[in-house]
Prior knowledge:
Elements: H1 10-13, H2 24-27, E1 35-36, H3 48-56, H4 70-79, E2 89-92, H5 95-106, E3 112-115, H6 122-129, E4 133-136, H7 148-154, E5 159-165, H8 177-186, E6 192-196, H9 212-216, E7 221-226, E8 239-242, H10 245-252, H11 262-272, H12 275-299, E9 310-313, H13 319-328, E10 331-332, E11 334-335, E12 345-348, H14 352-365
Parallel strand pairs: 1-10, 3-4, 3-5, 5-6, 6-7
Antiparallel strand pairs: 2-8, 7-8, 9-12, 11-12
Helix pairs in contact: 3-11, 4-11, 5-6, 12-14
Amino acid sequence: xxxxxxxxxxxxxxxxxxxxxxxxxxxxxxxxxxxxxxxxxxxxxxxxxxxxxxxxxxxxxxxxxxxxxxxxxxxxxxxxxxxxxxxxxxxxxxxxxxxxxxxxxxxxxxxxxxxxxxxxxxxxxxxxxxxxxxxxxxxxxxxxxxxxxxxxxxxxxxxxxxxxxxxxxxxxxxxxxxxxxxxxxxxxxxxxxxxxxxxxxxxxxxxxxxxxxxxxxxxxxxxxxxxxxxxxxxxxxxxxxxxxxxxxxxxxxxxxxxxxxxxxxxxxxxxxxxxxxxxxxxxxxxxxxxxxxxxxxxxxxxxxxxxxxxxxxxxxxxxxxxxxxxxxxxxxxxxxxxxxxxxxxxxxxxxxxxxxxxxxxxxxxxx
Length: 367
Ligand SMILES: Cc1ncc(COP(=O)(O)O)c(C=O)c1O
């Protein structure tokens, strides 16, 4: 008898599926008006310029789109006022796909990736799929600040990627420029730092930073971005990452021909010039954050100050019970135990009408 050769990769057998937030269709039957505050989507819709582009370019769908991301990269370089050049970008079908490409480029069996939970689950998922070992250096409670000492201690010769998120999902916290500088100074050259900044437009802290100054200073850092949040294009799946020309070029080798579909590409290019829409959503989120702080303070529910378009709260009932209660009141929220924050719930910041509905439901619970 032939010896049985296992066909399944050991590290894929343990993979936990990603449990996303419920869709509107899944809960439609429950109540007429539902406010979806569970997936950090844009509460005012999509960039009108992007929507126009989708309409304009939806003919000739039988013809292949651009084979490369060159036009998109050129638009991105213009968007960054030439401070980043075309060869520093990689266009991807979403921020998640950027993360997947980065992981495929740098991680794999025999390597380690550092994450700081609570954080976006796909870093762990995608790196595990390739057999990389995940090393968790949790954010420090109670303020969820980055454990720089712990990270530096966790680095060894197998470490390839360090995932940082600022503003962080689900905590809403951010990493200061000083903290990033401190880390970069001490990290060995075989570690690439990924700074996921998909919520960067919403940040207004003085010492907030994106990856750009560090990338331009030649550090081994990659900025990850998405059109799902600020530009409201979650359904189109479009994003990008940027780094030094050497790192971006290295990652780009993994991009399949025709990776970006035509409608997403045109929508992305159009959205980049929609400064009016960006201003509108950024103003709304920043105003509504303050509104919610006041209401939450008054109600007395613990929460974390946020730099994103969502807020993390800690109800005094279980997160799942809280989710069900809110759903009955017509508000969808997201328990985030699977992001590493058990007992906590993430609430997307919506329009004033949606936020009022959320506050009204909260008041019922905390009367
Ligand atoms: C921190 C973070 N990074 C990346 C993404 C990926 O966004 P997308 O794949 O929709 O571009 C998300 C989405 O929720 C996120 O919260």
